[in-house]
DNA sequence: CGCTTACCGGTAAGCGCTTACCAAAAGAGC
DNA sequence: GCTCTTTTGGTAAGCGCTTACCGGTAAGCG
């Protein structure tokens, strides 16, 4: 309970010191655990702190210590239709951010979030403003041009997510290639589907390019016909997926036997559009996703997809950033393994017991791709081989 | 591109000044738009800034200005099983945070996020740490005891979300009462269901209590049998909803004609559990949600629910906080109106055209409850009367 | 060319905290 | 009671930036 008769201005350690009858040096020592203050001194300081409701000013601490204990995270918002249903895409980013946050907590850091609209022009100043308030930066997706990136990276350490490794920066990504290969292999080799299409994400996204490349390579390797022309260009959103399907059907085009979507959001829109037209999944067309967002398992049919360790991605990004901040060294290129999650939308039958909540979802580890770049693969906990696990729901 | 031959330490305005051949005062004037620097001066300063890749230190600015341009947001994470599928609940909070972020951007503020685990003990110090790094705080849910809240509120302005208004604090919430009334009225009066149950959220949540109370009142007012005993206690999660249904069915209990869930997550789990047991929604049992999370429309059947203007909730929270920070005055109790979204899970038939993406979802404005507390209702944009709107997907 | 009006440079104080320093005081041990 | 060891108080500098002040210099004008 704050003392009613306290002065007007904000509290400082001087107020605490005089209240406790000690010097500011002692207050600081107690608060920072430096030196070995006597128990009695500590007591009096702590009591004064609680009585006054004192909170140290972070800016002053940061200035004095040269450490803000803040990491900045910058990403792009869906689009500029601010308050419309902007449903899409936010799941993915938020899960990663949650991972960053959890890892940051462990080090006493907090996370400074800043989103930027897709049509926003002055990106660099905005990122710079965040950089000035943080000890390091984590950048989602492609936020900046290479030159803008370099400018910022000269100021604070920067980790990019799902980008391409660049000199002077650090990057964390998931093993898109291995995941896509495992997925296509399952569809073509296991199910025997002869035609597969890739419904793309935004075409300028590095993730999308990597997935497309692996898709085509694996389809070719297994002798399946691969479709991925401009008519299959989505944008990572459910609306984009639905639009592609509706356009194809409106033109009375034959659909391929399986549609590999660039992400789960897209698959969601695709399945919705197909259902409206009375096309059965997976009987008529199989559909797969990529990401394994939480709702993927709740769709009908439950979505076969690639699970990316999104929380771990965020946590790893923070950890290497922290390492860079505190020691000056940080791993410049980390690749995390992904997992094939077989549910029902690919054509597999459910292993769900009908009477009790129980076994479901078959995770299959995608073998890490050796891409010859010397990237390291972390996270053995994701390296489980084909077995059944208990589902949380 | 950073100059290679720059000194070791971080750049300061002194470096910029000497590079541009002007004084630090001029640099500061240019950077802050104070005074009226000559065009030539501005040019040279800006050029030096970009050449050097200079970024002003936020901590020093904050210390000098007494303004950090940061708002803190604190909330609780699902639970401490950090890297397990923590699916649930994160949607809701993240949408609100997005609203905060968007509103903050408009004022040049950034958002400092800090989550706290449910089993975390020392909450107050954690919140205090965030408070020290921010100009104001937005607290989700019930984060602190009244005394802890007061202690923090003595330091920085605080806005609580969906809590109960308290003196000295500001609060923003949605009109739970009106929403629940509209929902129950629709089920009982429009559909004629004689038995309805309320599958609760966490029982200590103010939102949950408000919804329960309105549920019982409206059911009674319309002569329906209301069930809401301990066997109907959920916890806002899909798993919780499924657990309740499974337990009831395992005991061979008759289900009510309609199940009103405390939130969409719960409804999701309920529908999933019912589907497993072969119970048809809405033919056998109607199910409704609360929140209108993005995926609600993609469920089968699409979920009838109450839309809370979650982004606006966040934006409003920021706006009153900003007002308090900058002017010292802020509205202490804001109530936002909600909207009944009729889809199919209540038993209504879809108005969806089968051949084109198009009209869907009937929003019906819930009349704002006059609760006699003098609270004001904002947001006329939600006050649309019954009509059909185009769905985004 | 002399005058008024910009604008600018240099300087200094101060934001709240940390930390080093040293002298002074309090405790411990005999 | 007298050393010998902690622990403390007072002081000061400094983190990087903003801003006020004011004498000086450059531009604008008649």
Topology:
Two copies of one chain form a homodimer.
Chain A: H1 13-20, H2 24-32, H3 39-52, H4 58-65, E1 70-76, H5 90-106, E2 110-116, H6 123-132, E3 136-139, H7 146-153, E4 158-161, E5 170-174, H8 176-190, E6 195-199, H9 206-221, E7 225-227, H10 238-250, E8 258-261, H11 264-276, E9 286-288, E10 305-307, H12 310-327, E11 333-336, E12 339-342, E13 359-360, E14 362-365, E15 376-377, E16 389-390
Chain B binds a DNA duplex (30 and 30 nucleotides) through helix 2 and helix 4.
Description:
The structure is a homodimer of 393-residue chains. Chain A is an alpha/beta fold and 393 residues long. Chain A folds into three domains: 13-56, 434 Repressor (Amino-terminal Domain); 70-174 and 311-336, Response regulator (Rossmann fold, 3-Layer(aba) Sandwich), CATH 3.40.50; 176-309 and 339-390, Response regulator (Rossmann fold, 3-Layer(aba) Sandwich), CATH 3.40.50. The first copy, chain A, has helices spanning 13-20, 24-32, 39-52, 58-65, 90-106, 123-132, 146-153, 176-190, 206-221, 238-250, 264-276, 310-327, and strands at 70-76, 110-116, 136-139, 158-161, 170-174, 195-199, 225-227, 258-261, 286-288, 305-307, 333-336, 339-342, 359-360, 362-365, 376-377, 389-390. In chain A, the strands form four sheets. In chain A, strands 2-1-3-4-5-11-15 form a seven-stranded parallel sheet, with helices on both faces. In chain A, helix 11 links the parallel strand 8 and strand 9. In chain A, helix 10 runs parallel beside helix 11 (264-276). Chain A starts with 12 loop residues before the first helix and ends with a strand. The interface between A and B is large, with 84 and 83 residues. Strand 2 of chain A pairs antiparallel with strand 2 (110-116) of chain B, so a sheet runs across the interface. The structure holds a DNA duplex (30 and 30 nucleotides).
């Amino acid at each position: 309970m704050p003392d009613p008769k306290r002065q007007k201005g904000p509290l400082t350690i001087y107020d605490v010191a005089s209240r406790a009858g000690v010097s500011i040096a002692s207050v600081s020592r107690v608060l920072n655990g430096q030196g070995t203050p006597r128990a009695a001194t500590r007591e009096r300081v702590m009591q004064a702190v609680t009585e006054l409701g004192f909170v140290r000013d972070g800016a002053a601490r940061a200035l004095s210590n040269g450490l803000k204990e803040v990491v900045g995270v910058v990403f792009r918002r869906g689009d500029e239709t601010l308050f419309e249903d902007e449903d899409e895409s936010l799941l993915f980013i938020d899960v990663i951010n949650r991972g960053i946050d959890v890892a940051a907590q462990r080090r006493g850091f907090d996370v400074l979030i800043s989103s930027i609209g897709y049509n926003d022009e002055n990106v660099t100043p905005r990122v710079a403003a965040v950089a000035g308030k943080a000890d390091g930066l984590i950048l989602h997706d492609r936020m900046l041009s290479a030159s803008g990136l370099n400018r910022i990276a000269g100021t604070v350490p920067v980790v990019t997510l799902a980008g391409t490794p660049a000199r002077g920066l650090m990057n964390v990504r998931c093993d898109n290639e291995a995941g896509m290969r495992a997925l296509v292999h399952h569809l073509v080799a296991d199910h025997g589907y002869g035609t597969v299409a890739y419904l793309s994400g935004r075409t300028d996204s590095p993730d999308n390019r990597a997935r497309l490349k692996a898709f085509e390579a694996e389809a070719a390797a297994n002798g399946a016909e691969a479709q991925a022309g401009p008519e299959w260009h989505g944008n990572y959103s459910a609306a984009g997926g639905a639009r592609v399907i509706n356009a194809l059907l409106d033109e009375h085009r034959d659909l391929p036997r399986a549609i590999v979507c660039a992400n789960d959001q897209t698959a969601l829109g695709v399945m919705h559009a197909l259902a409206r037209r009375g096309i059965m999944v997976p009987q008529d067309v199989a559909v797969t996703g990529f990401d394994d967002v939480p709702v993927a398992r709740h769709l009908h049919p439950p979505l076969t997809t690639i699970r990316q360790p999104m929380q771990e991605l965020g946590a790893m990004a923070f950890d290497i950033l922290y390492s860079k901040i505190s020691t000056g060294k940080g791993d410049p290129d980390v690749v995390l393994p992904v997992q094939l999650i077989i549910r029902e939308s690919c054509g597999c039958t459910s292993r769900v017991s009908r009477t009790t909540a129980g076994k479901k979802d078959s995770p299959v580890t995608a073998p890490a791709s050796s891409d010859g770049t010397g990237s390291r693969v972390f996270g053995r906990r994701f390296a489980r081989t084909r077995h059944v696990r208990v589902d949380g729901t």
